[in-house]
């Protein structure tokens, strides 16, 4: 069960962070730091309602891939289950790119030619 991050929350909360995360590469899958981070967060949230997040690189390229990052929402959990995507397999294979590609949740901007930073945003909405 996902942690109850919305308990007592009266207003939306936006958590921002930046900087490059670290990834231990164990396999030959596709993905970069941002999508790997986001897949780990997705696993921890377990489809919690009211929580949306993105992880993106301002230069438009996450690692060596063509995506800038990816986005998750509460609906992703059900969609991943419907098409039998395994978070554990994707994480074990360092293949977050293929996971989010299957969900159509990659963020594709093309190269921006501006490399300011990697950043993450997590939006937590109050429980209804």
Automatic annotation (TrEMBL):
Residues 14-118 form the MOFRL domain. It comes from the Bacteria. InterPro entries: GK-like_C_sf, MOFRL, MOFRL_protein. This is MOFRL family protein. It comes from Larsenimonas suaedae.
């Amino acid at each position: 069960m996902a942690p109850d991050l919305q308990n007592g929350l009266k207003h939306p909360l936006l958590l921002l962070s930046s900087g490059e995360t670290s990834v231990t590469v164990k396999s030959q899958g596709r993905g970069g730091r941002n999508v790997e981070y986001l897949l780990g967060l997705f696993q921890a949230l377990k489809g919690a309602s009211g929580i949306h997040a993105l992880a993106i690189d301002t230069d438009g390229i996450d690692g060596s891939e063509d995506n800038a990052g990816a986005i998750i929402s509460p609906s992703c959990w059900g969609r991943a289950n419907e098409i039998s995507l395994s978070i554990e397999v994707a994480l074990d294979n360092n293949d977050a790119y293929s996971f989010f590609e299957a969900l159509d949740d990659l963020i594709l901007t093309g190269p921006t030619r501006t490399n300011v930073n990697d950043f993450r945003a997590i939006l937590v909405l109050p429980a209804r």
